[in-house]
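Lab notebook, bench 4. The sequencing result for the construct came back, and we need a structural model before the next group meeting so we can plan mutations. Quick request posted to the team channel:

Model the 3D structure of this chain.
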Amino acid sequence: LFCAAKHQDEELLERHLRANDRTFNGSFRYTNNAIKTSKYNIITFLPLNLFEQFTRLANAYFLFLFCLQLIPRVSSLSWFTTAVPLILVLSITGVKDATNLLFFFLLKKEKWRNVQVGDIIKLENNQFVTADLLLLSSSEPLNLVYVETAELDGETNLKVKQALTVTGEMGNSTEVLGAFKGEVRCEPPNNRLDKFKGALTVDKQVYSLDNDKVLLRGCTLRNTEWCFGLVIFGGPDTKLMQNSGKTKFKRTSIDHLMNILVLCIFGFLATMCAILTVGNAVWEVKEGSVFTVFLPREDDTSAGLSSFLTFWSYVIVLNTVVPISLYVSVEFIRLGNSFFIDWDRKMYYPKNDTPAQARTTTLNEDLGRIKYIFSDKTGTLTQNIMVFNRCSINGKAFGEQLGFCKTGRVEWTHEDVFDFKVDTTLQSFMFQQGFSSSLVISGELHYQAQSPDEGALVTAARNFGFVFRSRTPETVTLMEMGRKVIYELVAVLDFNNVRKRMSVIVRSPDGKLLLLCKGADTIVYERLHPSCDNLMKVTTNHLNEYAGDGLRTLVLAYKDLDKSYLEEWKQRHHEACTAIDGREERLDELYEEIEKDLMLLGATAVEDKLQDGVPQTIEQLAKADIKIWVLTGDKQETAENIGYSCNMLREEMKDVFIVAANTADEVREELQ
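Done. Here's the predicted structure in token form:
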């Protein structure tokens, strides 16, 4: 018991597990991989569904009426006159709700619930990942896997994950994988989908683990024949389930309206019954006593009790005032509306053969209640297809309307890797400079970029003779104007929303150490060497021009590094990477230390066009008095340009202004 309590305390700080060792992992009492995502199950369906249905006032009223009819002194009607229609109404709604239950059990045939923390499992192409896994090896070169994360973050482009070299060497050998005894120490269960901190110990060597080496529950494996993974979190501990809230009984505006109408009907019914009860009491006093000679009372009931029982008798007699079929009728109307949505040809997307699909019969009412729309820009308003458009190099702008890059001449000799996914002005420039018109797109070299921006930049470099050929965890291979060059990848300083920049440290074949950085202009400018001031002013003018045209901009910089300093920095970097506590803070300090006194190279501008119909759609939403907010990380000038392009901002708007405050009080002050 003491050991179990100690292990539970450790779980609050970090998780510790061993591969292929259920005895050791079992001592921590980790949760298994069984989860419940359905609204009902076989046991709870009847009570929960009945409870949900009786929250509708009309159903509750008829249940109460049924109970009254069981009292002989109150009811003059048989109980089944209410019971039969009530059971029919409840059954129709219950059958509709039960269809979801059946679908749920069809999905639960697989034995994933038996998987435990520390198990090594195999995934195959197009399979759903149903536990949080540490990627060990895959069928792809360099131990890469491609996953679709639409169920997690809505992103449709494939993400790339890569296993450590030390585990990737195991391949698909079940003997080697079965004998693997690596130990993982990582963060406890949490709901942060974008971060993971851990360390893997193999043969007394410690390796850093981050989010790029983890497959989360909810992902789907794509374009990968197989991969092996070590279960880190299972069941309720997975990040997906940590983000799941409790299922709530939801009521639409129509449901609320019907309950209000039923309450009004109740009030009308109660008033009628009260009037009739008073009338009956008056009649009893004046005329009723005469009839006792012919119809003697069974007992001497007091006038008050007699009036009370008479009131409820009238409630039963007048029960048809409350329409028992009201909710069923509305359900059929909702079902018909959902079919109209499914059949709507204007909501059909022929490119992917995708029709609209109403997954709930109340969708029409839910859509009608929307007052605010909060939207991302990239990939939602835009196509998320980036095209390299312009650039500024050492103070010279390339890509003006009169032809891309009128200064200088580039000899093109690499037709086999040319790619036409660049701006037409860039293509025009290439052919103006004497390129052969017989260039074709190679089917052999295809980039899988996690970010479309990176894909556009790499493709542009490829078209000018600097071809990105391959990458391992330790090296990057380029073809520079036909010459193969292999760079050693010393460190990657990752991008995040706070840093707003990314850097790599590489060692060239001649031993030269170089830090290369790309990021937002305001962030990179703060870290430039003072000697770059004049160049920065020229580049800023180019950036403002690009942003005014609605282009996405990045600034590029570099720095030469000293070998002895870098060796010492690398040691501290490794210690920070393998730490569980305070990893992010320690890494941020190291990044800030080395990313200073940079030398400015220039800037790039990439175009991401709006999707078809976006301006018209936003115009219609605005007419419906729906307030729209769009989130973007672009420069202010780019954001304004996109705002006007998509009809968020319109020329007839007067006094458009910018709020630049940082606190709630400052924002309130600026708005006033």
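The two ends are 62 Å apart (CA to CA).
Will bring this to the meeting.
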